[in-house]
Amino acid sequence: MRQSIFCLFLIWLAASLYVGNVYSANGAIGNDWLHTEGALIKDSSGNVVILRGVNMFIRLQNEQAKFVSASAAGANVVRLMLWKCDIETPGPNETGSDKLGLDKRGLAAIDAAIGWAHDAGLMVILDQQVWSSTTFDSIEPAPSTFLSDPTLQAQWLAMWRLVVDRYKNDPTVIGIDLMNEPYRVSVSQRGAWETIAKNAVFDLRSHNPNLLFFVEGWAGPTAVPGWQDIEFFKLPNVVYSEHIYYHTASPLPLPKWEEPWRIAYSIGDLTTGRNLFSQYADSRWTVFTNQGIPVWIGEVGFLTSDPYWQDQMENELTLFDQRGIGYAAFAYGISRWRSVYDIVDASYNLTNVGAAYKNHLKTPMATVTTTAVSSLTQASAVSGGNVTSDGGAAVTERGVCWGAASDPTTACARTTDGSGT
Question: What is the rounded distance in angstroms from the CA atom of residue 224 to the CA atom of residue 17?
């Protein structure tokens, strides 16, 4: 008999979020490790943790104030973007009073950043962002031959072993993002990346089985979903990750080959844009969460120069909040080569994008309990639950959602049972 799995859900005025157990109010790091359970990430007490945070370049503004201000803005996690070359061959800290110099100290710089993150109550995900560069402008994740060169792959894996071993006793470092946007290395070798990434997870898990492994999929309209061997992500502590940006890099009107949701937003057709983005999310991410696989959006980015950017931003982040998908904004601190994405300035004052983003970092977390499923038949079951706390915001909708996979969401079948606690 195929059993359905139930969870209680509720919707707030400020944002929406399905819940199945108890949500951690701030997700701050404790003295334990996180783990995956179906499509959810939980702490050792069983509390669901939604990772909402920011991206930081280790080379830029690597200072305590940066982490303190990110925590004050409501972030609970930092995706710390690293340079492989600095880890292997450390350089000087060139940061000056103008904060435009580069901190190339490698592991010493990472040590300092993790310490500041811990003190600020932030979790850290280490991301291999850049392979090698003498300037800040070169940000390729790996040489073009990486996906076919075993020697380069061995060097990369050795770097990760060094990093994982160094922080294996520090639960501030909750996970690693194996490689930033691997499709940029060679768009035609998707299968090679899947093999390399899977082998790396199997290897590095033996160095620290407590880590979450964030593995990025393939981008582009022909890569749907972004990973072929979906069963791999059903392994413990493996999280599927992608990036999403609303940008109109092409002159307006956008060309027909552009994503339809971007075209709709760019011309101000907001209802169509919202509906098309929801369909896009279903094809790229719900296909994973409906199978009990956690999804995290490692980079979201918004440009104030894009038409209707704030409408698109609100729709996108609200959708993620409704579906319990975490995300991290790009970028916190001055990014220099693309400052238009910055959510704070050099003094950590919020930009227009940052001010809007902060509202989602501060999304309240309600607390619910779910009644165990009983009276199971092939056609029905009995369940329910209670909203024990509204988390500081009005509960506008509550009910039960269910599905054949673990951790169903409000995108599945559901009831609507009123509002309030």
Answer: 25
How many CB atoms are closer than 10 A to CB 318? 17
Q: DSSP code of 179?
A: -
pLDDT at 279: 94
Using the predicted structure, report yes or no on whether residue 355 has a pLDDT greater than 50: yes
Burial class, 406, CB count within 10 angstroms (exposed 0-12 / middle 13-18 / buried 19+): middle
Q: For the whole model, what pTM was predicted?
A: 0.82
Q: In whole angstroms, give the CA distance from residue 367 to residue 21.
A: 8
- Indicate the burial class of 151 (C-beta count within 10 angstroms; 0-12, 13-18, 19 or more): exposed
Q: Would you list the DSSP string of 330-351? A: S-SS--STTGGG-SB-TT--B-
d(Cα 399, Cα 402) in Å, to the nearest integer?
Answer: 10
Cβ-based neighbours of 97, under 8 Å, separated by 6 or more: none
The amino acid present at 319, given as its one-letter code, is L
What pLDDT digit, counting tens, does each position of 359-370 carry? 999 755 555 666
- d(C-alpha 354, C-alpha 163), whole Å: 31
CA atoms within 13 A on the CB side of 113: 30
Determine the straight-line distance between the first and last CA of the chain, rounded to whole angstroms. Answer: 34
Tokens 């999403």 identify what position?
244
> Do 284 and 243 form a contact (C-beta atoms < 8 A)?
no
Average pLDDT of span 26-44 = 77
Quick one: angle between helices 270-281 and 309-322, nearest 10? 40
Burial of 305 (0-12, 13-18, 19+ CB in 10 A): exposed
Sheet containing strand 22-23, edge to edge, reads 35-37, 40-42, 47-48, 22-23, 367-374, 382-389
| DSSP 8-state code for residue 255 | P
**How does pLDDT run across 298-320, given as a tens digit for each residue?**
999 988 888 999 999 999 999 99
